[in-house]
From TrEMBL:
NCBIfam families: pseudouridine synthase (TIGR00093). It comes from Lactiplantibacillus plantarum (strain ATCC BAA-793 / NCIMB 8826 / WCFS1). It is an enzyme of class 5 (isomerase). SUPFAM superfamilies: Alpha-L RNA-binding motif, Pseudouridine synthase. The keyword Magnesium does not apply. Keywords: Isomerase, Lyase, RNA-binding. Residues 3-60 form the RNA-binding S4 domain. GO terms for molecular function: lyase activity; RNA binding; rRNA pseudouridine synthase activity. Its EC number is 5.4.99.-. PROSITE patterns: PSI_RSU (PS01149), S4 (PS50889). InterPro entries: PsdUridine_s_RsuA/RluB/E/F_cat, PsdUridine_synth_cat_dom_sf, PsdUridine_synth_RsuA/RluA, PsdUridine_synth_RsuA/RluB/E/F, PsdUridine_synth_RsuA/RluB_CS, RsuA_PseudoU_synthase, S4_RNA-bd, S4_RNA-bd_sf. PANTHER family: PSEUDOURIDINE SYNTHASE FAMILY PROTEIN-RELATED, RNA-BINDING S4 DOMAIN-CONTAINING PROTEIN. This is Pseudouridine synthase.
Length: 238
């Protein structure tokens, strides 16, 4: 069955659909020997697709868990010349990319892979993959604030899905606190906006868990390969 070229590329692990579209429109992709630069082209399984001269299925699928430090951009390239997550994977020959994103000033768990199908599954809202964050916030949230986060808050004209929230620590003298928040959505700056909505702006943020994964003994800037059982669980096979 014919499918859109950018979808086929994403599922083959070349890049996300959006990045695949950029590769297509900028002339990096050939179908059956002819360069394709327009979107909407559909290909059959029998078609021969190349990206920069490399056949679509030439790379093996790889999976890494990365502890992203603060001050690093979650992108493949940065026009401003800032350090990107790929700078930590210079010894990895495969063309990997981040699943989802973390803000420049946010640290924590990030999955790096070239498996487009898994990336789409982990970021698609219908699968409700849970992500847990540790946030240092201004002020000390009340029980009412935490309850509101659990019920959902209004941000950008819509109400967020119910979340799990816990107050882990508080310092009334310094007027700050540590809040743990678990969500399954992935809207832009969502955790920061949710906490700001209940009157507690975030001053520091780290993602501690993503699905079945946690940071374990990793330090900022370090990564490890995912175990086969972890990959299977992320794919929903176990």
């Amino acid at each position: 069955m014919a499918e859109r070229l950018q979808k086929v590329m994403a599922e083959a692990g070349i890049a996300s659909r959006r990045k695949s579209e950029v590769l297509i429109t900028s002339g990096h992709v050939k179908v059956n020997g002819k360069t394709v630069t327009t979107l909407g082209v559909k290909v059959e399984p029998s078609d021969h697709v190349e990206v920069d001269g490399v056949p679509l299925n030439a790379e093996k699928l790889v999976y890494y868990l990365f502890y992203k430090p603060r001050g690093v951009v979650t992108t493949v390239h940065d026009e401003k010349g800032r350090k990107t997550v790929l700078d930590f994977f210079e010894d990895v020959p495969e063309r990997i990319y981040p699943v989802g994103r973390l803000d420049y000033d946010t640290s924590g768990l990030l999955i790096m892979t070239n498996d487009g199908a898994l990336a789409n599954r982990l970021t698609h809202p219908k699968y409700e993959v849970k992500k847990t964050y540790l946030a240092k916030v201004e002020g000390v949230p009340t029980n009412a604030d935490l309850k509101q986060l659990r019920l959902g808050v209004e941000i950008d004209g819509r109400k967020t899905a119910p979340a799990k929230s816990n107050l882990l620590d508080s310092d009334h003298k310094k007027n700050n606190a540590l809040v743990q928040l678990t969500i399954h959505e992935g809207h832009n700056h969502q955790v920061k906006k949710m906490l700001a909505a209940v009157g507690h702006p975030v001053t520091k943020l780290k993602r501690e868990r993503y699905g079945v994964l946690d940071l374990q003994s990793l330090q900022p800037g370090e990564y490890r390969k995912l175990k086969p059982i972890e990959i299977s669980k992320l794919k929903g096979e176990r």
